[in-house]
Write a structure and sequence with these properties.
With 272 residues, the chain is α+β, with helices and mostly antiparallel strands. It has two domains: 132 residues, Diaminopimelate Epimerase, Chain A, domain 1, CATH 3.10.310; 121 residues, Roll (Diaminopimelate Epimerase, Chain A, domain 1). 16% of the residues lie in helices and 45% in strands. The protein is built from four helices and 18 strands. A hairpin with a 2-residue loop joins β7 and β8. The N and C termini lie close together (10 Å).
């Protein structure tokens, strides 16, 4: 047996455990991550986040993300803020501006306070692609807009966010052969040019209370249809995020809080 030391954090109800792979060796297989994510017999979380040394000496840290089912994800917008706060709280850095690597690309975080951390994300795919999807099992035909925010998203517009069948439809879309690696599905209601309501089905997790990259995807797709302005607030079940879409459409600035819940430790069976 050995012990896993972790920090539980959340942003808008999107909850994570943070692991320090800078001073400790971390090696968890997918089945163990899935067990740890169980909210009845494990720790419980939407994603497990690991901070590692960078592979590029010009960057500060490497950010790894694992979903609750043990699959590795490319990016996590809310998690980026928690990771930045985690490093400062643990005194693993004194820098308030950090340059990161991740599987989904490079990004920068700017720490101002626990309530105001900004993430500048570079976009892998700037132009959303519209498609019509026929969900035969649910007898529905939907227009969706596919976009990459480092990780894959598709956005569909709804008139009433509360009535949206997020889990049923999101799960059906994410399992389509058109998305061999799954997809995060955003259900977006544009209230006015500066305000969006959003619910997100995350692949490997289910519906979450908030999704940072999902908020970015919804804003970019809405902007491409001239439904919103340069700055927008996005309301999700867990709270609100602020987004700024700089001219050119090649990046997005995401702003919101990050909160530590507790430090903990759990005994693990040996993986050797």
């Amino acid at each position: 047996m050995h012990t896993l030391f972790f920090t539980k954090m959340q942003s808008l109800g999107n909850d994570f455990i943070l692991l320090d792979a800078l001073t400790k060796e971390i090696n968890l297989d997918p089945s163990l991550i899935e067990k740890l994510s169980d909210r009845k017999v494990g720790i419980g979380f939407d994603q497990l986040l690991i901070v590692e040394p960078p592979t590029n000496p010009e960057k500060d840290f490497y950010f790894r993300i694992f979903n609750a089912d043990g699959s590795e994800a490319e990016q996590c917008g809310n998690g980026t803020r928690c990771a930045a706060s985690f490093l400062l709280e643990k005194e693993l850095t004194k820098k308030e501006t950090l340059n990161w690597q991740s599987l989904g690309g490079n990004f920068t975080t700017f720490y101002q306070s626990q309530q105001e951390i900004q993430t500048h994300l570079q976009l892998a795919t700037c132009t959303p692609e519209a498609h019509s999807l026929e969900l035969k099992t649910l007898d529905k035909c939907l227009e969706v807009h596919n976009i990459s925010i480092g990780n894959p998203h598709t956005v569909t517009f709804v008139d009433n966010i509360q009535a949206a069948e997020v889990d049923k439809i999101g799960r059906a879309i994410s399992s389509l052969s058109a998305f061999p690696n799954g997809v995060n599905v955003g259900f977006c209601q544009v209230v006015d040019s500066g305000f969006i309501r959003l619910r997100v089905f995350e692949r490997g997790v289910g519906e979450t209370r908030a999704c940072g990259t999902g908020a970015c995807a919804a804003a970019i797709v809405s902007s491409s249809k001239n439904l919103i302005g340069e700055k927008v607030k996005i309301s999700m079940p867990g709270g609100k995020l602020k987004l700024t879409l700089p001219p050119g459409g090649e990046s997005v600035l995401l702003s919101g809080p990050a909160t530590k819940i507790f430090d903990g430790q759990v005994p693990l069976p040996s993986l050797t």
